[in-house]
TrEMBL record:
Protein family membership: Belongs to the aldehyde dehydrogenase family.
Organism: Streptomyces lavendulae subsp. lavendulae
Entry annotated with the keyword Oxidoreductase: yes
GO molecular function ontology, one term from the record: succinate-semialdehyde dehydrogenase (NADP+) activity
Top EC group: oxidoreductase
Protein name: Succinate-semialdehyde dehydrogenase [NADP(+)]
EC number: 1.2.1.79
Entry keyword set: Oxidoreductase
Pfam families: Aldedh (PF00171)
Length: 467
């Protein structure tokens, strides 16, 4: 039951909502359930803070570098809280915090380039870049801090201010991050708001917001695009994925099995760019299933705070039910679990790491995003058939090709309809690269200089050479 709390931003009695530890399934804390009416004040403050923040690029660089240092200094507290509410192993929380700081540093040093238009006319025409204004950043629960940083670091570096809304499943580490960043940034340059819906919907449609940058599921992304249409704010959407890994005939199974397993199961499969389907030449199918099942059988599953844990719980009860439902449907339709296929006994939202074979190609575990620790392994007879199958879903985030002949692998990778294709790896990302899904996986480009320009507008000054 939500409990009242005095002293909200609006001066009214505020409500709080429970935050659950997925390793136990029990509430361990609460967060403020801010109401949509509070957004007017928050956005007005962000608007006022923008005027000072946009004016001094050198001060921004220094502040963002200071923010990165502050995040690292607070690393231990942030990591424990992140693991507590998200579920991931502590080592992965530390890695997420390192990536959060790295993003701040990368964008702190990135500046847009003024460009002269040289088209032969006797004029001096120059393209400069201007920030947009207050930016709304709405993020999911799978990587609450690093995905938030992927939004606020380029937005702030570009000279915008940010209102950041985490998922109600993971509000606490983001609130702590907001307090840490406040030690390095001017007041109201970055504000964290927490609450249940319709807070996100109202933020996306707020008339004072000039860019809505959203990461989450496809259906919510559609709703966000619709909400932002009210104010014609710019929209960047980083949405779901259902990435295929395509193994070639010359693949060295022993050599790649660990990498392939972790590409699917890191963060308990709750990664937009996880491998969610594996296509294997029919003659290698049994060997690949055995290699993956062996790893699923022996991986240490447990609470993220336990030092030996490699695989934590699913983040929330809704997601666990979804993973269970698509797995049960596949099994009912004739699939076989080479390992797993069920929830684990005991408290918490644990699901056994699962390797499925004999799955129907049209099964939801193949065609939809299940976003959990489940991996169907599908045999193919011809490469064309495999490429067609890999490209057959509505998603297009990432994909990978695995084999020994790297030239052949690259030729196949080039045929994948997605934003990033890897060879013998999956989901290895550089801060400097563009990140953009195709089809239902996204709109707009994040990452690298493209992410910076996504938070800027061109401003052209046109000057004749004579009066
Ligand atoms: P979600 O779409 O349910 O929620 C995402 C965020 O939107 C949360 O903060 C949520 O509170 C908020 N929200 C909910 N309804 C809203 C509305 N009507 N208007 C505005 N905001 C609203 O997603 P989730 O379950 O938190 O996260 C999992 C999804 O995120 C998966 O589909 C995954 O693939 C995707 N994801 C994509 C990327 C990427 O970079 N492409 C990265 C990570 C996760």
């Amino acid at each position: 039951m939500p409990t009242p709390e005095a002293g909200s931003a609006s001066g009214r009695e505020a409500v709080r909502f429970p935050v659950v530890d997925p390793a136990t399934g029990e509430t361990f804390d609460e967060a403020p359930d801010q109401q949509p009416g509070e957004l007017d004040d928050v956005v007005a403050r962000a608007q006022r803070a923008w005027h000072g923040w946009r004016a001094d690029p050198a001060a921004r660089t220094a502040a963002l570098r200071g923010a990165a240092d502050a995040v690292e200094t607070a690393g231990d507290d942030l990591a424990r809280l992140l693991t507590r509410e998200q579920g991931k192993p502590l080592a992965e929380s530390y890695a997420e915090i390192a990536r959060t700081a790295a993003r701040l540093r990368y964008f702190a040093d990135l500046a847009p380039r003024t460009r002269r238009i040289d088209d032969g006319r006797p004029v001096h025409s120059e393209v400069r870049w201007r920030p947009l204004g207050p930016v709304a950043a709405i993020v999911p629960w799978n990587f609450p801090l690093q995905l938030a940083a992927a939004k606020f670091a380029p937005a702030l570096a570009a000279g915008n201010t940010v209102v950041l809304k985490p998922s109600p499943f993971t509000p606490l580490a983001t609130r702590m991050l907001g307090s840490v960043l406040a030690t390095a940034l001017p007041e109201d340059v970055l504000t964290v708001v927490t609450g249940r819906e319709p807070l996100g919907a109202r933020l996306a449609s707020h008339p004072g917001i000039r860019h809505v940058t959203f990461t989450g599921s496809v259906p919510t992304g559609r709703a966000v695009a619709g909400a932002a249409a009210a104010s014609l704010a710019r929209v960047t959407l980083e949405l779901g994925g259902n990435d295929a890994a395509l193994l070639l005939d010359d693949v060295d199974v022993d050599r790649i099995a660990d990498r392939l397993f972790w590409a699917a199961f890191r963060n308990c499969g709750q990664v937009c760019m996880a491998v969610k389907r594996v296509y294997v030449p029919a003659r290698l199918h049994a060997e690949v299933v055995e290699a993956l099942a062996q790893r699923a059988k022996t991986v240490a599953v447990g609470p993220g705070l336990d030092p030996g844990t490699r695989l934590g719980p699913v983040n929330n009860a809704r997601q666990l039910a979804r993973v269970e439902q698509v797995t049960e449907q596949a099994l009912a339709d004739g699939a076989r679990a080479a390992w797993g296929g069920h929830r684990l006994d005991g408290p918490g939202y644990f699901f056994a790491p699962t390797i499925l074979t004999d799955v129907l190609p049209g099964s939801p575990v193949v065609t939809e995003e299940q976003f959990g620790p489940v991996l169907p392994v599908l045999p193919y007879r011809s490469l064309d058939e495999a490429v067609d199958a890999a490209n057959s879903t509505g998603f297009g985030l990432g994909g990978s090709v695995w084999g020994t002949d790297l030239d052949q692998a690259e030729t196949v990778a080039d045929r994948l309809e997605c934003g990033t294709a890897w060879i013998n790896h999956h989901a290895e990302l550089s801060l400097a690269q563009p990140f953009a899904g195709v089809k239902d996986s996204g709109v707009g480009v994040a990452g690298g200089p493209w992410g910076l320009y996504g938070n800027l507008r061109p401003f052209v000054v046109h000057r004749p050479q004579e009066v």
